[in-house]
Amino acid sequence: MVDLARVQKELQECNRDVGVSGISVTLKGDSLTHLIGTIPGPLGTPYEGGSFKIDITLTDGYPFEPPKMRFATKVWHPNISSQSGAICLDILKDQWSPALTLKTALLSIQALLSAPEPDDPQDAVVAQQYLRDHQTFVGTARYWTETFAKTLGTEEKIQKLVEMGFPEAQVRSTLEATGWDENMALEKLCSG
Amino acid sequence: MEDYLSGDEDIYSSDQEDSLEGLENEESDSRWASSTGNSCKVITKESLLVAQREELRRVMDLLSLKEHHARTLLIHYRWDLERLFAVLVEKGKACLFAEAGVTVLEEVNFGSSVSSLTAMCNICIEEVAGSDVTKMDCGHCFCNECWTEHFIVKIKEGQSKRIRCMAHKCFAICDEAVIRKLVSKRHPDLAEKFDRFLLESYIEDNKMVKWCPSTPHCGNAIRLETDDLCEVECSCGLQFCFSCLSEAHSPCSCLMWELWTKKCRDESETVNWITVHTKPCPKCHKPVEKNGGCNLVSCICGQAFCWLCGGATGRDHTWSYITGHSCGRYKEDQEKKAERAKRDLYRYMHYHNRYKAHIDSSTQESRLRDTIKEKVAILEAKESIAKDFSWITNGLYRLSRSRRALSFSYPFAYYMFGDDLFKDEMTKEEREIKQHLFEDQQQQLEANIEKLSKAFEEPFDDFKAEEIAEMRMQVINLSVVTDTLCKKMYECIETDLLGALKFSCPNIAPYKSKGIERATELNGGRSTKANNNITCQKAHDQTNGGSIELVQPSGSGTSDDSGCSSRKRRRTENSGGAFFDLNLPAELIDRN
């Protein structure tokens, strides 16, 4: 059985300092075995500004077996499958130790985002691009971050403008017209 | 040391010993097996612990370690003491321990913190009573519940042999006693499994020990005492090649044997022939052979097709032309291919037929054994004739032994002089010369084996005393000749054929007159503690190659010892009992 008491403690502990680490873990449904972790893209990387969701499944053996983690947000990275989101990280496999926690695992994933290991790739296509055409790699990674890691941000933008009193359909179309630039959209909404 | 010397003196000079071996395959097989110098041992479920005790002991003594640390080291170094000691000499103790995950902590003040009333377990994040936590050798301390869970998961994952500490980046291997204690509280059966895994590491991870490949499995493993490639016989009766674990196949090398069995299984030559000589009908896909006539072939299903391209055609044709059909034909290559396939098949059949014939004879001869025993019983019942019929048993043994060598010499020759393995190793001329040389040997052996076999077919239970005496002389002579010829054939194989290869050097199990060695039961304690001290001392004294010396004495040294002593014993029996073996040639008896 999953050690639910420990998971609960971990959640409390982790969400206590979301402000500092930016890392949070929330429940996916009403079960403590399916969780969503969120990590901010590290500064100074093509992932900066993105917010990455990670699908976490705890097996019965947790914490004696590693948690199953997978990127729910699409990401362009040599050690993460661009198709499935599978993560190639030793501590999620044989180097897992029960002394590690969900938060430390997420921190390690965040560290992996800043320091890819193209020699031990999960996604061969990305890894090749990383090694041979770094410029294009950075471009693609940044584009993917913009496109996928900020999509939920757009919902928040809509939410924000709706809360200001504008009708949702109008907000959406204006945001789309301005390329999701909330300031320009606000100006446009106010002016007309 | 004295012991070694006296042992040496007592060994017969080699040629004497050889002729003895050739003749002395006496009545009870087990007796000679145990006296051949025990170069292999049977390890049963019961003796598994005893078998590894010595290695453990030596590591424990030399490095002053506890047993579980010694085992961890040995498992890491795959029970290869030589390598373990080499690492010790080269890199030092600290590195040796670190690589294997052994942490030996001096007893520092850790005690005080543990014995405090409660402690925080970092795994379950609970406060637990100080009595419910366990500190590993590496110093990491967690609650017993968590340890137990961790061990159970790891054992179930099949990692019993190397269960690491729970702390992140701690590579220490956990104390097996702690694991056993904690796991058996919750899961006694799993603890048992754990113990078995640990014990069996001695077999699984050790290149000198292998499971007997018998099916159904006899439960035994065989330990070699020396590195030599050889064939062994398990106490369950199965004879096998220690190197590739298939049936004994000398003088074939393991690779030759693997290729040969595969070839025989696939009947790949037949398949080969079919693909070259037949074409699938384009309609019903059955292989069709062309046995003459023009290139328009019709299948029994009624479909006509062009033999050259295999395509379906109409029936209207002349000798050289099929109406409405044309395919660029390039005939030469096709013919060559057919030629080669045919030649290969005939070659294979030549060797296979002979191999098979001798294997069959061998089976028949082993059946003959029973009828011969009956005949011997009849003879023994007759008062008038000499009672000793060990020459019959010996002769029969010689027959089966050399028959086996002969049968396996055919697949050997197939590969030795074929294109599969050594095509570039010798010129065509060289190969021809060598093939003649080898075939000469093989033929001589074959002829004598047949003579020996024929001798046993005689209705000798009706023989008179003189006839028996004559047959006895014949059988004894033939046995000696056959044995010598076997040796010569092996000599030819080992030096002139395999030994002369430039690029590869395949190994084969050497010929032993006494046959495949039967592994002896392991009896506890191969070496004494004194012996250990000597070997350790030696290691310190010698700077070069010390690690090799280290391992040898207790292994081969002691086994030599026992080999000698049993030989000695046998000899005294012989002389003391005033018997002398009638099978021995006169000059040997004189020397005795």
Q: What is the element layout, followed by pairings?
A:
The complex is a heterodimer of chains A (192) and B (592).
Chain A: H1 4-16, H2 18-21, E1 24-27, E2 34-40, E3 51-57, E4 68-71, H3 102-114, H4 124-132, H5 134-149, H6 151-163, H7 168-177, H8 182-191
Antiparallel strand pairs in A: 1-2, 2-3, 3-4
Helix pairs in contact in A: 4-5, 6-7, 7-8
Chain B: H1 2-10, H2 14-23, H3 29-35, E1 40-43, H4 48-63, H5 67-76, H6 81-91, H7 93-100, H8 110-114, E2 118-121, E3 126-129, E4 133-135, E5 141-143, H9 144-156, H10 176-186, H11 188-204, E6 209-211, E7 221-224, E8 231-233, E9 239-241, H12 254-266, H13 268-277, E10 278-280, E11 287-289, E12 296-298, E13 304-306, H14 331-381, H15 390-416, H16 428-457, H17 465-498, E14 517-518, E15 520-521, H18 529-541, H19 546-576, H20 586-591
Parallel strand pairs in B: 1-15, 8-14
Antiparallel strand pairs in B: 1-7, 2-3, 4-5, 6-7, 8-9, 10-11, 12-13
Task: Give an account of the 3D structure.
The complex is a heterodimer of chains A (192) and B (592). Chain A has 192 residues and is an alpha+beta fold. Chain A has eight helices and four strands, in the order ααββββαααααα. The termini of chain A are far apart. The model of chain A has no long low-confidence stretch (mean pLDDT 86). Chain B is an alpha+beta fold and 592 residues long. Among the domains of chain B are: 49-100; 118-207, Zinc/RING finger domain, C3HC4 (zinc finger) (Herpes Virus-1, 2-Layer Sandwich), CATH 3.30.40.10; 328-508, Four Helix Bundle (Hemerythrin (Met), subunit A) (Up-down Bundle), CATH 1.20.120. Chain B has helices at 2-10, 14-23, 29-35, 48-63, 67-76, 81-91, 93-100, 110-114, 144-156, 176-186, 188-204, 254-266, 268-277, 331-381, 390-416, 428-457, 465-498, 529-541, 546-576, 586-591; strands at residues 40-43, 118-121, 126-129, 133-135, 141-143, 209-211, 221-224, 231-233, 239-241, 278-280, 287-289, 296-298, 304-306, 517-518, 520-521. In chain B, helix 1 (2-10) packs across helix 19 (546-576) and helix 16 runs antiparallel to helix 17. The longest helix of chain B has 51 residues, at 331-381. The radius of gyration of chain B is 33 Å and the shape is extended. The chains are: A alpha+beta (192), B alpha+beta (592). Chain A binds chain B through residues 3, 5-6, 9-10, 61, 63-65, 91, 97-100, 104, and chain B through 122-126, 146, 149-150, 152-153, 166-170.
